[in-house]
Amino acid sequence: MSALPPAAVLTDIEGTTTPIAFVRDTLFPFARARMAAWLEAHPAEAAADLAEIRRIAPEVPELATLTRWMDEDAKVTPLKSLQGMIWRDGYAEGALRGDIYPDVAPCLRRWSQGGVRLSVFSSGSVEAQKLIFGHSVAGDLTGLFDGFFDTRIGGKREPDSYARLAIGMGLPSVEVLFLSDVEAELDAAAAAGLRTCQLVRAADGTLPSDRHQVAADFPEVARLFDLPHPA
Fold first, then answer.
1. Looking at residue 18, what is its pLDDT?
2. Total-model pTM
3. Are 218 and 104 in contact (CB under 8 A)?
4. Regarding the domain delimited by 23-93, which CATH topology (the fold level of the hierarchy) does it fall under?
5. d(C-alpha 90, C-alpha 96), whole Å
């Protein structure tokens, strides 16, 4: 591990900055309940994603495929894209607010002020990521981030995805710290040379890894990696 603090922090969302329950019990049911009506009302916006769904599952009606993917919590790009657009409307209506853990925003602000570059890598679409942070309970945090990345860059359990992200940031892999609750994602990031830390949130029931640094919250991440600490 480098003796210097990381130059950049790349963070997951679900189980890391945001309670799993918010995604599971609020966002997913909201999109499921509105999916059929939204597709009917927004044919132009949905066209590209529906075409991709037909390419993947040509013999099955698109809505049936989407329903199956939602049942399976599949990390499939067209599903995530459509969910993101449905959530966009929900945030705009005030029906949704982005839930983040209370320790997250003070650390993100302090790290950004201290010159640490911040980015997001989540299986949720880039639009969905920006909505959570843009309409968060702690205010609009999107301006703190240099980049938002989803599975269009690659799978979250594939080392090549993290190598591409580091190259895109213009940084050596060892200068990027990846935060996630999922051990397999951390394994992939470590294989690409990134530094890693697992967020083990008690409310999410995360099992701690024995292969990565472990932290209960963002202030502990700051202490472990010598990042700026909120006052």
1. 97
2. 0.89
3. yes
4. 1.10.720
5. 5
Give dist(CA 168, CA 60) in Å, integer. Answer: 37
pLDDT of residue 2: 57
State pLDDT tens for residues 66-82: 999 999 999 899 999 99
Cα of 28 vs its chain's centroid, Å: 14
pLDDT tens across 98-130, in order? 999 999 999 999 999 999 999 999 988 898 899
Write out residues in the chain with pLDDT < 50, as ranges: 1
Q: Where are the domains of the chain?
A: 8-18+99-225, 23-93
Q: Which two tokens stand for residue 217?
A: 């919250």
CATH code of the domain occupying 8-18+99-225? 3.40.50.1000
